[in-house]
Amino acid sequence: MSPDEVRQYAKFEALIARGRGPAPIPTAVAHPCDESSLLGAIDAAEAGIIQPFMVGPAAKIRTVADKLNLNLSQYEIIAVPHSRAAAEKAVELVRLGKAELLMKGSLHTDELLAEVVRKDTGLRTERRISHVFVMDVPTYPKGLCITDAAVNIFPALADKVDIVKNAIELAQALEIEEPKVAILSAVETVTSKIPSTIDAAALCKMAERGQIIGGVLDGPLALDNAISSQAATSKHIVSKVCGQADILVVPDLEAGNMLVKELSFLAKADAAGIVLGARVPIILTSRADSVRARIASCAVAAIYAHSRRFIQRPALRRQP
Q: What is the pLDDT of residues 277-318, one digit of tens each?
């Protein structure tokens, strides 16, 4: 194993170790009807992180398990006829307090999130939901959060406020006491020709006024300045964030998606992904994820849930 692989492995191993709490967290797994999603849930269960409820067509789940020689006897299967019903039932389990995490199976992300955001039966809060990738990048000295690269396509300023707040709270749960937040754009100067620079400046001013708390914000920053002190110095930028960013806030989903995939395929990074802003964290995994990344996604969600447990669980129990 190369030095880069050792560093990569060590970062996510630390997350996985922290994700093992006093007991596995009850988790509603929506439609685990392909190899990747079923293995992801079982791998995390065997790692002591989650206690999965498999919600979906029972015959399909068992067929996949038989193909993989998996023993499902210790896991509860909640039978429903199709993926939409699985999303609805998994959300219901969370709403009733029987599960503290929600995990996406082989259904489409939009199908699951549609149930999450329903006004009458969903898991909405006052926050907009947003996605955070927690990246293990071998060439970066610490973990790196990237948001939002999966849910909000072209977020407005008000959306970005919630995106930043969600990411800061996650970073704090990961024991980063005051995360450094880089608001990314193509340039470091504010210009009306690039709207994301105006949003970045507004977010930083809102942080100064106490509208966003818990982190140190700077922006607009180009990516090189956010992750390299040398690049910032060469451009005469003085900042507490430059070269030390814990969180990268991208202008839109397209930019974020490309950044994450570039890091994954060119820098050999691993990515753990969760959705925040609902009543519980939502675990999103991909068929392309490594086993380590799938378990790390569950671990990140579990760490966040442990940090919020005494705040969230009473609210869940009051739901009909």
A: 999 999 988 777 778 888 999 999 999 998 887 554 444 433
Give the model confidence (pLDDT) of 104-150 as tens digits. 999 999 999 999 999 889 999 999 999 999 999 999 999 999 999 99
String of DSSP letters for 234-299: HTT---SSTT--SEEE-SSHHHHHHHHHHHHHHS--EEEEEEESSSS-EEE--TT--HHHHHHHHH
- Tokens coding 211: 């509208």
Q: CA 82, CA 302: separation in Å to the nearest integer?
A: 27
Whether the ω angle into residue 220 lies within 30 degrees of 0, i.e. cis, is: yes
Residue 177: give the domain boundaries: 130-277
Q: Encoding tokens for residue 271?
A: 């990515």
Do 251 and 214 meet the contact criterion of CB atoms below 8 Å apart?
A: no
Do 137 and 271 sit in the same domain of this protein?
A: yes
Q: Is residue 10 part of a domain?
A: no
If we measure between CA atoms, which residue out of 127, 131, 161, 162 comes closest to residue 148? 131
Name the nearest CA neighbour of 70 among 30, 50, 106, 43.
Answer: 43
Is the domain of 136 the same as that of 268?
A: yes
* 270 and 139 co-located in one domain: yes
Looking at residues 238-256, what average pLDDT do you find?
Answer: 96
In a domain, 145, yes or no: yes
Q: Which of 314, 268, 307, 284 is nearest to 150 (CA)?
A: 284
* Co-location of 156 and 256 in the same domain: yes
Fill in the amino acid letter for 260: V
Cα angle, residue 51 at apex, residues 87 and 6 outer, rounded to 5°: 105
Q: Identify whether the C-beta of residue 35 lies closer than 8 Å to the C-beta of residue 65.
A: no
Distant-in-sequence, close-in-space partners of 122: CB < 8 Å, separation ≥ 6: 91, 95, 115, 116, 278
Q: Quote the number of domains for the chain.
A: 2
> Length of the chain in residues, anyone?
320
Is 8 within the bounds of a domain? no
Same-domain check for residues 222 and 135: yes
Q: Locate tokens 């760490």: which residue?
A: 303
